[in-house]
Every structure is written in structure tokens, then in C-alpha cells.
Prior knowledge:
Layout: E1 10-14, H1 17-20, H2 33-37, H3 56-70, E2 74-78, H4 81-84, H5 94-109, E3 113-119, H6 125-131, H7 139-154, E4 160-165, H8 167-175, H9 187-210, E5 216-222, E6 226-228, H10 233-256, H11 261-270, H12 278-285, E7 294-297, E8 302-305, E9 331-332, E10 336-338, E11 345-346, E12 352-353, H13 355-369, E13 373-377, H14 395-414, E14 418-424, E15 443-445, E16 457-459, H15 461-471
Parallel strand pairs: 1-2, 1-14, 2-3, 3-4, 4-5, 5-7, 6-8, 7-13, 13-14
Antiparallel strand pairs: 8-10, 9-10, 11-12, 15-16
Helix pairs in contact: 3-5, 7-9, 8-9, 13-14
Bound molecules: 6-O-phosphono-beta-D-galactopyranose.
6-O-phosphono-beta-D-galactopyranose (BGP) binds next to loops.
Amino acid sequence: QLAPFPQDFLWGSASAAYQIEGAYQEAGKGQSVWDQFVRIPGKTFKATNGDVAVDHYHRYQEDVALMARAGLKAYRFSISWPRVLPTGRGTVNEEGLAFYDRLIDELIANQIEPIVTIYHWDLPQALQDEYGGWESRQIIPDFTAYAALLFERFGDRVRHWVTLNEQNIFITHGYLTAEHPPAVMDAKRTYQANHMANLANASVIKLFHEKGYQGGNGPSFAYSPTYALDADPVNQIAADDAEQLNANLWLDIYAWGRYPKLILNYWAREGLLPDITAADQALLQDPLARPDFMGLNYYQTTTVTANPLVGGVGLTKQNTSGKKGTSQASGVPGLFKTSDNPYMQQTDWDWNIDPEGLRMALRRIESRYNLPVLITENGLGAYDRLEGAGEVHDEYRIVFLKAHIQAIQEAITDGVTVIGYTTWSFTDLLSWTNGYQKRYGFVYVDRDETDEKELNRYPKDSFYWYQRVIRSNGQQ
Ligand code: BGP
């Protein structure tokens, strides 16, 4: 017998400013690092950008009306830092703030709770140019001042705040694999920038608690729990190393304010230790800097085996082509490398489909950290086809989400506290490195890689299915 979903469970969907808004240089908005990055010639990913995206900036009322029709209880979106502070700090762009006022009011008028992500990767380019963005200590007061502005302006209407979206992704892709701006490949700089992000995150949560704003605040972590391929003890150690380096390194800091000892040792051996001062430690361990919930973005699990130090598999890029089977193993020589898992199917982008992995992620967060979880992203990126009079028969997405919702219910039955589920995504939107062909939404948006068309919206079959799920509080 499965436990029911809580009565006030936040059924919703999610998005991010750069991926939906468009209006990239309208109404006083400054440029973000992504506005610039997509213009660098010769990037390996699709030559698409968020200049127009799905034009949510102009169509937010239509989008909120669709959310209301789907019956969403919550909607997670991000605020574009350069839209409200065009140069990252100092002068405020009142028109930018006014846009988010309108959006929040529209949501509330439709009984949809706004969940606001403070940072979803669109750093003001001015801060990157001025002092190197996340690598500098200056980012800590600047990010804190930006968050303080949002708390003051919207804190009367917003109860759930997400500080940083997927710090583990924007830092490793930005500084280790060069798939995101600022496209650096340097392990030492990776962990230095990551340390600054940890401090910025702690500083904002501390401020939020000090000032006594209503509601809660936490980061969203991209968690892909690790399995060992088999019971070979060396593969089990490899899985533990992967879990330390890919998960505990971040989660321990959020929950406890300290780095795992195994990671500190590894950094010391490799010459990768960030500059950690006594004041840094005090901030990280401040009880006021503890998150109120853990945001969880879950897409897939990782399976690993041991990886030789000499001649081992290193970093490789992901499948961004949507051609199934084109991804390669990647890893850290001497520690672990990824492997196919014979029990799982993959998406066209080679992401493992593993609903049990979501249950696993939830159980691990509960048993190790004992924090409530807000599932801030989960969904299936797929090719969709618009047919007939504007229909999309995305049975595969329904099957995917159904299995994941069941896994959440099993985790709740196990004893995990889950407060909400915002799927990725509500409308189709820009996938950072995969373009517009990889679709996640309940609502199809008519545009392809290069052609904005009319940007008409069409609810997919999954839209009506999710409407029934919400109405019945999770019964399917
Ligand atoms: C997460 C991001 C989202 C979204 C999602 C899907 O990492 O927080 O912004 O993009 O992944 O990923 P992708 O677009 O690469 O398929």
C-alpha cells in the first residue's frame, strides 16, 4: 500500500529565463554570458540562441492561462539577473523588475504558487568582463546584493526560493569541460570557482534567514546517483568515488557546510585545493546558512567501473546531436569511468531512463541529510511531432513521467519528505546545448532550430494527462 501524496503537494512545472523569455535586449536588459557565448563562432553545439526563445516575455499571460488550464499548483521560473541589474550591480532596471511583478501577480491571480530561481546560469556579462565572474570573491557580495533586491521586492508574494540552479553543472561545464561559458578547461580553477559559488550560496541563505523572510530557500542540485556496474569490489570503490566527487562534494557543503574528507585528500594529492580561509569556513558552517529544503533536479543515473590511472578514460563531451548511441564513456583516470547499464533504456540523447534512480536519489538525500526535498526538475527530452489540427501524441512522455511519479510515491512511502514536483518543462523551450529540437514541454511551441514561425502553443497529450494527475493529487 503506497502512502498518498500530501494534500498541499506542489504539482507544477519549471523553466529558466534564458530558455524561454527572449526579448534579450529589450526594456533595458543587459547582456548575459549566454547572450555572448552563443555568438562565438565554431562552438560545437547547435547554432541556436535564446534571443527570441519562445517569446515568453511577451506571451506570459497566454502561458500562465495554459498553466491555469492544466491546473498547476506551482510554477518554477528564474529571474534574469541582467534584466534587473543590467551591469550586475548598482543601477536597477525598474522595467525588468516590473516584468517579474506582472508575472508573479498573474500566477497568484490564477492560484499558482511562484517558485523563484535566483540564478539559472545567465550571469551578467559585465561581471565576467570586470572580474572573471564566479572565480572572484567579488561575486559573493554582488550575488548577495542581487538576491537581497529580489527578496525585498518579491518577498511578500514568494514563499519558495531556489538560490543556485545546478551549481555542479554550471561550474563543471563552465570550467572543466568548456561546454558552457566561460568555457575554461582547468580543474584547479573549477574548484576555486565552485568554492566562491558555495560561499555566495551560503551568504544568500544566511541573509534570507537573518532578515526573517517568509518561506524557504535552498539550492537545486543535479543529482545522478551512481551504481557500480557489478559486484566487483574495484567497481564498487569506483562508484563510491564517483558519488563523492559528483554528489557529496556539493551536498555535504549545502547540508553541513563542509567538504568531504576524501575530496579534500584528493584535492591535496592532485594540487587542486581551493583557497579556503577561516572566515569561509565560518560562513559555510553558520547555522543560518543551512537550506530549508534540498532542490533536486533528477534526469538519470550514472553507472561506473574502475578506470586506470594511466591510459584511463578522461572527460568527453555529451551527445548533443540527438543521434542515439553517439555518446562516449567519460571519467576521471584513477577513479572511475561511465559504463552502459544493461538494465536501462536510453533517450535519443543517450540519457538513461531510470525511475528507480529517482527513488534512490530521494532516499539518499533523506538518509544522509534529513532535509525535505523539492523536486525542481524531472522530464524527458524527446523529438515531438505536431500533427493534424495541432496535436502531439507524446505517449512516451506520459509513460516516463508516470513511472517517475510512482517512484516519488514509493519514496514518500519509504519515509522521504517530498514537498513538490515541478517537471521540466511547461512549454517547450531552448535546451542550452541541444537547441530547440529536444523538447520537454507539456505545451508544444511551433519553432525549429532556425525558424521562429508563429510560436503558437499547442497542448500535447501529456498536458491533459498531467491535468488529471494534479486533479486527483497523484492518482493515475
Ligand atoms: C538541467 C537544467 C535545465 C535544462 C535541463 C535539461 O540541467 O537545469 O535548464 O536544460 O537540464 O537539459 P538539456 O536541456 O541539456 O536536455
